[in-house]
Every structure is written in structure tokens, then in C-alpha cells.
Description:
Layout: H1 3-14, E1 18-20, H2 22-32, H3 41-55, E2 76-78, H4 88-96, H5 106-120, H6 125-130, H7 135-142, E3 158-159, H8 163-166, H9 169-181, H10 191-225, H11 229-244, H12 253-270, E4 277-278, H13 282-295, H14 301-316, H15 325-330, E5 339-343, H16 355-367, E6 373-378, H17 384-394, E7 402-405, H18 406-415, H19 420-425, E8 427-429, E9 433-435
Amino acid sequence: MNERIKRLRTQSRTAIPYLSLERAKLMTEFYKTGASQKFSVPVARAQAFKYFLENKTICINPGELIVGERGPEPKATPTYPEICCHSLKDLDILNSREKIPFKVSEKDKDYTRDVLIPYWNKISIREKIFTQVDNNWIDAYEAGVFTEFMEQRAPGHTVAGKNIFSKGFLEFKQEIHNSISNLDFYNDPDAFNKREELRAMTIAADAIISYAKRHAEKARQLAAIEKSETRKKELEKIEEICDYIPAHAPRTMWEALQHYWFIHLGVIMELSTWDSFNPGRLDQHLYPFYKKDINEGRFTEDQIKELLEVFWVKFNNQPAPPKVGVTAAESNTYTDFCNINLGGLKEDGSNGVNPLSYILLDVIEEMRILQPSSNVQISKQTPDRFLKRALKIIKTGFGQPSIFNTDAIIQELTRQGKDIIDARNGGASGCVKWELLEKKHIFSRDILI
Length: 449
């Protein structure tokens, strides 16, 4: 572990998690203007997302190579009042929890009491759900039969597919445009709703491109005042990368990691998908970039490893959003349950382990931080060397990587109706499900077991 990684790892491990109301304030500002009333629900949500990304704080931490934080700084954790608004009691619990507190300032408690609760208390998704269920259900909930039922989060558990790494958002926008052009408003009664969803996707794509360019501008500003020539060049490279991706498909390992990270942030900032939006088969997705970079002399293996370790730190900077009610009192984790999948099979059924798989195991062993979680998929094709390398890490007592049977995952997914190619591309997520991102979709669909 080099000095850069030691500093970033220490910063991440020692930063104190706290509740950040930046997102809640911006979303409240947007909805209080009445702008959402002008649009369909999907387009209104996309416009709110766009407003948030245009106004949130841009953070580039000293020395880092992958940029972007969910909050204004590491461990600053947002809330999602449109899903479920924290009560003042929740805030007191979060602030005083013995094991995993989220610090809450008096100023933010006042804002929650004076603005968030009065505005969102009757219109959040949670409150709307409660108006639709019968009294027997509510009685059971209040008696503790149910303790949490998506009342504080949106669906998560997604294993990302290779499209995320092989296409830029300008390509996605073109696909969306083509889909809109092919809608049949004469014969399809759902054509209008489909169009609104597709329009919302276009707005979201533009928003994430613009968000990346805000980081490019921030890097440009920092480079202009940077005294270290080495760091100045790094900031100029960050500027170049953020100007290029995610609008365009990544071309190098550095671009691929930054490209995914903006997508990851976009997903977890738009709504609380706790838990587990993750990059899926990371060694499979990144291997073409690794191979090209090494063959062309762009990076050494040590430099690739450094980029991956910086990437690891970014996950650890993002605690899971604070819970509400009984789970605020009982939850004992900061983990957002991103789960990195290694090994398994390729689409043709052959062994999926590659040289990058071993480098990623080295990263897991060396970093030893809470997030991201990791697993190895073991099949009949898996080399003994890979399994033994994973077991060597596991026996240290770190708890990672976990082990999954690839053949069982494929069998279960094909039983659900997935074709063999999709099933081989699938993986484990969260704590724990088997899932995949279907190759025919641009965006994710949960496959819940």
C-alpha cells in the first residue's frame, strides 16, 4: 500500500459519519416551487434529480484519483424525505447510538422540525402507503409483526451488466430517442406512459453528464492553484476524464472506474437504494481495459492496483443512509452492501478467472475496510489457485471474500426463466441475493429470490 492509499484509507476510516441535509434541502426546494406539478411523475422525478445534481456540493478530496461523493464530503450521509421523513426522535437516536452513530447538528434538527416534517409528513411515499393499507395491517405493524417494509428506501439489489462499461450516456440517449420514435400511440394504450418514462431517462442522462462536467470544472480550478506539479497533472487528467465520461464510453481503466463511479453515485443519490447497487462482475467488466492499458504501456500493474484501491476507498466513504423508527434504534451497520463479484464463468461457459481477478484479491486483502463487500464465485471450471488465494484471505478473519457456487446461481436464474447467457453474467448482491442485469435492458431490473 503506497502513501497515497494510506492517507486516503486513513481519512475514510477516521471520518465521522454525520447526517447531511443538503439533499433533503435541495429536493424540498424543488418540490416547494410547484415545478413538479407541471410534469408527469417520471419526468418530475427526473427534473428533481437534475436540480439536485446542478446544485449539490462538488467534492474532490486531496490526493484522490477517482472523484465524487454522495454528500458534501466523505461520510456525510444524505436523507430522503420524499420516501420517509425522520422524526425528531429518530434524529436523537441516530445522534446518540453507542455503536454506529450519525452525528446530527442542532441546526439540522431545527430545520427538520420547522421545514422537512411540516412539508413531507403527509406526502412522503411512506405516508401514502399507510393510507392505502387496512387497519389490521397497521395494527400488526404497530405490534411489531412488521418492523420495516421498504418504508425508508427504494428497491436495490442490482448486479450491474457490461452495458454500463461499454456505452456512454450519449449512446443511451440515442437508444432512448429511437424507442420514443418507435412508440405506437394509435394502438398501444401504454404509449404515453412509456414516452414519459423515456423522457425522464433522457433528462437523467443529461443530468449525470452535467454532474461529471461540474467535477471537471472543479478539477480545473484546483489545478490552477496547485503548487505540486505532480498533483497538478493529476488534476488536469481528472478534468480530462470527467469531461469525456460518462457522456462517452470509457477507453482506459481510469476512465472505466470513474465512469462507473458517477453511475453508482447517480443511483444512490436519486433514491436510497439501500441496499446493494454494485458493479457486478468487476474482473470481467474491467479486464478488457486492464489488458489494453498493460499492452499499450499506459499503466503498470502497480498503477492499476493503485487505481483500484482508490476506487475501494470511494465505497467506504458512503455509509448506508440512516434508518427510521425501530430500525434506527436497532440497526448496527454503516454498510451499504455493495458486493464485488469475482471469478465465475464467462458467457461461453469457460472459466471466468483472469489476471485481474488476482489483483482484485490482492486489493481486498490489502485494503481491509468495511466497504465494499466482496465475493468469489466458484464453479467446476475455477482454478484451484484462485480458490486457494481467496481462502488465504478468508482465514485471516477479515470476513471477505464470501464464497458462492456459480453453478447454483446459474441453475436458480435459469429456473426463473433467464437464458444461459444472462445467468452466467449474474452474481450475488447485498446480504444476499442472486441477481443480474439483463442484457436487453439499458437500466436495471431487480431479480429477487
